[in-house]
Specification:
Blueprint (H helix, E strand, L loop, with lengths): L1 H7 L12 E4 L3 E4 L4 E4 L2 E3 L14 H8 L4 E7 L3 E2 L2 H7 L6 E8 L2 E9 L3 E3 L1 H7 L8 E4 L9 H4 L6 H9 L4 H10 L7 H12 L1 E3 L3 E2 L7 E6 L17 E3 L13 H16 L1
Parallel strand pairs: 4-14
Antiparallel strand pairs: 1-2, 2-3, 5-13, 6-9, 6-12, 7-8, 7-10, 8-9, 10-11
Helix pairs in contact: 6-7
Amino acid sequence: MLEGQCRESGVQSFVNTAIQEVLHTTEFVVRTPEAEFHAPVVVVATGGLSIPKMGATGFGYDLARQFGLAVRQSRPALVPLRFGPEDCGRYGDLAGVSAEVVVSCGGQAFREKMLITHRGLSGPAVLQISSYWKKGQSISVDLAPDHNPTVALLEANVPRTASSVRAALQRVLPDRLASRWLENHTPSAWTNWALKDLERQLHHWGVTPEGTEGFGKAEVTAGGVDTDELWAKTMQSRKVPGLFFIGEVVDVTGQLGGFNFQWAWASGASAGRAV
């Protein structure tokens, strides 16, 4: 439908065309190996660095710097996080296990599904928090929101044994995760204090990721052309009239749920109306 509307409006598309340089005097000149294009306006919609196998590059950032615009450092966002060596050894073989959790970091928290992978943590909750996580920080995972499985044993008339605690954990966690969690956090005794401490750890699992899975697995790129460099209503450069930046090349990052698509369309519509 979009291609049909473009044809009806006289829009020409040139695919597989490498841009060699963009110049600006009284107008913009875009040079390619095959042709040279002249126009009063250039709209840059080159995206970020995410998923390079689809052709993502930093061309848009280079172009912005060429014209004197500030560019904020880029980093992967909405991306899986990698375990450090110790946690990878403890949990990496649980790949495929998922649970509803609350993941928090830097004052942000998300309650959604978490997925354990052979290299680290993924799933919506982890992808969301990754946009706020910075290298060296820890994330906190509440593995049993709204549940207090081990504390319930304090009030129940059941033996306090590894088996009873494991059964309590398995009522709120996947079996494999419950068993592994208890293996890695077994207290030396089954006292009231030990059960309460086990419960505390269950709600505050501290994980210090070694890093992210990088731009190859990131759904979006955080960073990009500084928004202070653009007019908010049109996306036009404040320094270079006729030069527009839209979509992911700009330093705007949304959460999961279609917000990044919406930003791409909304910024594109704003620039389109302006030109």
